[in-house]
Structure prediction request, 204 residues.
Amino acid sequence: MFVRPMGKAWVKARRHDRFYRAAKKQAYRSRAAIKLSQIDRRYGLFHEGAVVVDLGAAPGGWSQVARERVGPKGRVLAVDVAAFVPLDGVEFLRGDFRDPKVQALLFERLRDPADMVMSDMAPKLSGTRAVDVARALDLADAALSFAVRALRPGGIFLTKVFQGEGYREFLKQVSGHFEFVKGVKPSSSTERSAERYVLADGRL
Ligand SMILES: C[S@@+](CC[C@H](N)C(=O)[O-])C[C@H]1O[C@@H](n2cnc3c(N)ncnc32)[C@H](O)[C@@H]1O
Prediction:
């Protein structure tokens, strides 16, 4: 009988499948929902009644998690350049987040300062690592500028980045606006990918 060797790649693939299955089982729209749940369990991102802005929200896994955590008194405002199948209790705005008109509309809809701004925005991958790292950092940078203006003092910012050139500088830049800054990599994020999350708490 042929026994398949349980190589590292196979073990990893199976583990990641586990997160895919977990997302499906909980009826989340994306595997990314599990990453946010893991970060939340560890660091306690949400509270009942919180106002949350979700940048790069489609297909909607993060918005689902936020919706569950903030409860009926909270608000979730989601933005994406791609289409978004409506989700109960999630206010969606379609457009390129970097467009000043889209940001102006978002501020208008927000009305009050947000408790949390989270961004899982990712560029279309070019296949050239340096280009993808730089594009992801540009998006994270745009999310940071918005978060600094949109958050209440003490608010939380979470953003996806790709580790590489500019990552350390970005952490430093975020540190200038928050009391606590940390790079996090949930176990559900594929180990060999450059994906990281920057978590910042306590907007100054
Ligand atoms: C990894 S997916 C987000 C997954 C989402 N967090 C979830 O749980 O379903 C990245 C998203 O970022 C969006 N995106 C990328 N650049 C954007 C931009 N400039 N403005 C708005 N959305 C953008 C993409 O359209 C894509 O839907």
The longest strand covers residues 151-162. Strands lie at 51-55, 75-80, 90-94, 114-119, 151-162, 178-184, 195-203. The CA atoms of residues 162 and 195 lie 4 Å apart. Helices lie at 8-25, 32-43, 61-70, 100-110, 129-150, 167-175.
